[in-house]
Structure formats: C-alpha cells, structure tokens
Amino acid sequence: MKTFLNILYTSNGSTATITINRPEKLNALNRETLKELQSALTLAQNDGDIRAVILTGSGDKAFVAGADISEFANFDAHHGSELAQKGQDEVMNFIENFNKPVIAAINGYALGGGLELAMAAHIRIASENAKMGLPEVSLGVIPGYGGTQRLAQLVGKGHALEMICSAVPISADKALRLGLVNEVVAQENLLETAEKLAQKISGNSPVAIKYAIQAINAGFEIDKNGFQEEIRLFGACFETADFKEGTSAFLEKRKAQFQGK
Ligand code: COA
Questions:
Q1: Are 58 and 19 in contact (CB under 8 A)?
Q2: Is the confidence at residue 1, as pLDDT, over 70?
Q3: Which of 52, 94, 146, 234 has minimal CB crowding within 10 Å?
Q4: 28, 65 contact by CB (below 8 A)
Q5: What gap in Å lies between CA 205 and CA 101, rounded to an integer?
Q6: Is the separation of the CB atoms in 20 and 33 below 8 Å?
Q7: Residue 136: pLDDT band with limits 50, 70, 90
Q8: Could you give the residue numbers annotated as active site?
Q9: Does 25 sit in the ligand 1 pocket, CB within 6 Å?
C-alpha cells in the first residue's frame, strides 16, 4: 500500500483501488487531493501488472461531495478558468483517456466535482444509497470539470439540463434508469462487485482494451472520426503479441496469458 495524505492506494496484483480519504469533509476534492489523485493514477498507469482501477470514497456516506468549496469561494474569473482547466487536464481527461479501464464505485454522495469524477471514469457502479447531482448553479457557478459535456453525453441533453438547472440530486435507481450508472448494488456488495468486474477485465488483452477505450473516446472528439480510429486501431491489433496469444490460445483450446504487448 502506498500512502498519501488524502488518498489510499492498494493493489491486489491486477487491480489498483484508489480511495479518496477525507471522510470528515465528505471526500471533497481540494487541491492536495487532486494532486495526489493524479499521482496515484500515474502509479497505476505505470504498473504493468495493473489491468484495471477502482475509484471510490472513504466512509459510507460519500463518494465525493464535490470540489472543495472553501478553496474557490474568493476566486475571480481568471482563477476560476484556471481551476477548471487544471482539473480537466490533469485529472478528468487523464481518467477518460486512461490506458486501463477505470471503474467508479459510487458509495454515497457524488455531487459536483464528485459526479464529474465518476463520469470521467469508464464504468460506474453505485450503491443503493448513492445520490448523484451537479448542484453548482445553487452556488452561482456551472460545472467546471467537464460536467456539462459528459452528463449530456451519458443521459442526453434534456435530462442533463434538468439535473444541472434544478441542482436536484437523483437517486441511484433513477441514475440507473437514465444510464448514468451501469449497475446498482447494496452498499456492502459495492466493492466486491467492482472487484469482480475488474477481475473479468484482467483476463482480457490489455492492448486491445486500451485501443477500445481510444476508439470509443474518438467518437466523442470533435476533430476525430471514430470509425476511422476504429479501423486504424483494429489494424494495429494485428501487430501485437496479445493478438497472437489470444488467437493461438483459442485454437489450442487453452486460456490466453496476455502480456499487454
Ligand atoms: N466542499 C467543502 N466542504 C464540504 C463539501 C464541499 N463540496 N461538502 C461537504 N463538505 C464538508 C462540510 O462543510 C462539513 O464540514 P464541517 O464539518 O467542517 O462543517 C463536512 O463536509 C460534512 O458535511 P455536512 O454538510 O455537515 O454533511 P450533511 O450530511 O449535513 O450534508 C451534503 C451532506 C453533501 C448534502 C452537504 O455537505 C453539501 O451540500 N455539500 C456540498 C455539495 C456541493 O454543492 N457540491 C458541489 C460543489 S461545486
């Protein structure tokens, strides 16, 4: 286990679990925590044995209750834009483009920057008590860590506008109905469910998974053609050791042992 001030980092060999650990502040994302989150993610990215990452919050009340409001209460326009730019570049976009699947295990409140963090992850699993929302307009700001874009992508423009303009959080069940989360489970089963999924992911080709993430993301980038990216990356798979191993294992009726190359 690697220790940070506000983050716990554990690994079971193939899955890294990153826990935001400021339960007394409902895991609100202050500057230090964002910096440590980026460092913990970099650790997972650079560890060749890690095949998937679980992101969760400490305690049974909150995943993350937002960006730390006390840190930006006195900001002007320049500092506000800077905060959003840094958070998007260094954490949210880093997660979205991560080379391994990131699973958000949402164990309670996911509000503001907390929901934005969960939405940057590739897969979201929520506990039954989770409450999700983007309440920024109730503070006089708009979401700044990608929330206006990713919420609309996930639930459609109408539901995103309703959630953002009303500032009212939704329940886990409603989030499931809207497609905001992939699955809802009892709180005591949340981590186990995420770990089982991570385990399934771990058995597949890391290179193919990385290319799949890139191809899917390309479809949401204005300057890219997702279909062309898919064609390019599909071709690139044929040059990988993972492809040779995957096809040989199938033909030899054995389980593939992927090296991620
Ligand atoms: N930023 C900074 N501190 C936060 C925080 C945030 N986003 N969310 C919670 N906290 C702090 C509270 O200030 C409180 O600290 P204190 O004990 O030193 O006073 C502590 O976490 C516990 O929160 P509290 O409000 O007492 O818990 P609650 O159960 O009564 O309410 C919430 C829970 C989530 C409804 C409430 O904390 C809240 O509305 N938080 C802000 C949510 C938000 O607007 N997020 C978007 C930010 S852009």
A1: yes
A2: no
A3: 234
A4: yes
A5: 12
A6: yes
A7: very high
A8: 116, 136
A9: yes
User: 5: CA distance to ligand 1 center in Å?
Assistant: 20
Could you tell which of 25, 61, 71, 117 is best to mutate to test the pocket of ligand 1, judged by most ligand atoms within 8 Å of the CB?
25
- Would you state the pLDDT for residue 2? 72
**Average per-residue pLDDT for the chain:** 97
Strand partners, 125: 105, 183
Cβ–ligand 1 distance for 29 under 6 Å, the answer no
What separation in angstroms does the CA of 126 have from each of 90, 170, 177?
Answer: 25, 12, 12
Enumerate residues 6+ apart whose C-beta is below 8 A from 256. 203, 205, 245, 246, 248, 249, 250
Give 136 Cα–ligand 1 centroid separation in angstroms: 13
Determine the pLDDT at residue 3: 74
pTM of the model: 0.97
Average pLDDT over residues 227-246: 98
Q: What is the mean pLDDT of residues 196-204?
A: 98
> What is the C-alpha to C-alpha distance for residues 254 and 256, in angstroms, rounded to an integer?
6
Question: Distance between CA 24 and CA 42 in Å, rounded?
Answer: 26
